[in-house]
What does this fold into?
Amino acid sequence: MAKITAGVGSSHVPLLGVAVDQGKWQDDYFGPIFKGYEWTREWEKETKPDVVILVYNDHASAFDANIIPTFAIGCGEHYKSADEGWGPRPVPDVEGHADLAWHIAQSLILEDFDMTIINEMDVDHGLTVPLSMMFGQPEKWPVKVVPLAVNVVTYPVPSGNRCWALGEAIARAVESFPEDLNVQIWGTGGMSHQLQGPRAGLLNREWDNKFLDMLESDNDDVRHIPHIEYLRETGSEGIEMVMWLIMRGALGKKVKRLNRHYHIPCSNTAIGHIVLEPAD
Amino acid sequence: MSEKPTQNIHEYLAEFEDIPGTRVYTAARARKGYWINQFAMSLMKPENRERFKANERAYLDEWKISEEAKEALLARDYNRLLDLGGNVYFLSKLFSSDGLPFAEAVSTMTDMTWPEYRQMMLDGGRKPEGNRSIKGGY
It folds into this structure.
C-alpha cells in the first residue's frame, strides 16, 4: 500500500535556482538560506521517498492567459524544464509516476474534485527550485514526481478550506493505491512577498511565523484564513501559501515538526520551509 | 461540505480595492489585459524575442492591444500596465527579454531606485504597518 509519510512546505523563489545553477549557494547572500535546508537535504537522503506529490503554481510558463485550471494534475511520464525567458534551467528532466497520478486523478474526481488532467507540459521554477533545494544537483532526480498545479494568479483562487480538503482526499487516494510506495507531499510557494505596484517588497516576518505555528498545530484554524488576510498581511503573491494547506491537509489531524527554517530576504521574498510528519 | 457560507463575490472583490499600492489580478483585469499578457507570453520563444527587439512597435502592431497599452509597453511603464490588466508573471517575460533581473524590474514600480529598493529588502523588506488598508490606515 502506498502511504504519505511526510510533508514539506517550502518557498520556490526563482533566484534560488539561479544560485544553485551558478554555484553561488555558499556566498554571503545565499549561504544562510542554503544552510537552513542542510538538515532537510540529509533527511531526504535517509528517508528516500519513491514519489513526491509536488504542489506548485505555474508562472505563465505551461499555461498562458487562455486556459486557467484551478487544480491540474500531471499524469505524464516525464516533464522538461521550461524556458522562462533565460533558457531552460540546466536540471534533469522530471520523471512522472503516471500510474499513481492517474489513480489519484480518478479518485479525486469521484470525491467531487473536478481535476484538470495534463499529459504534456514543461515545468517551471515553481517545481524545479524545490527539487534543487531538497536534492542538490544530481544527474537524475532521485524521486518520481506527480505535479499538482494550482491557480494562485487569477482571482478567485481556491480557498484555503478547499485546498485543505483536497489534501485530505489526496491522502485517501494514495492509501488506496495497491503498490508499496513511500510518498511525500510538498506544498510550495510563498512566503510573504509582493512583486507588483508601489507596495512591492512587502514582507511580514511575524505573520509568516504565525502561519508556520498554525501548520504545526493540531487544530485546523489555518484553513479558514480568508484571501483578503493573505493579501493585506503577506503581499499580493503571499497567497501562494494556500498551496501549503494541500500538503497540511494530507497529513491528518496531528503532526510532528521535524524541521523549520525562516530567512529574510531572498530577492523580493521571505524564505521559509517546514518538514512535518503525520502523528495521528 | 464547506463549513462556512459561500462568500458574496461582490463583497469579496470590493475588499481588494482597499489594499494600498496593489492591483489584485481579478477576472476583470484578466479580461482587460488579455492581449497584453498573451503578447508578453509570446516572448518566451527566442524567434519572437528577436523580432520584437528588431522593431518593437511593428511587433506590437501585430497584436490586438490598445494604443495606450502599446505606449506603456514601449515605455516599460509597469504600473500603467497593471492598471491596463497586465500581470507581473506575464510581464516578467518582458523583463527577461530586456535582460533585467526580476527584483530590479519590480523596483521600477515603487518610488525607489533599484539600489534603494535592494537595500530595503536587505533591511527586512517593506513593513506591513500602514500598508494593509487604505480606509483603515493600519
Observations:
- The first helix of chain A runs from residue 14 to 21.
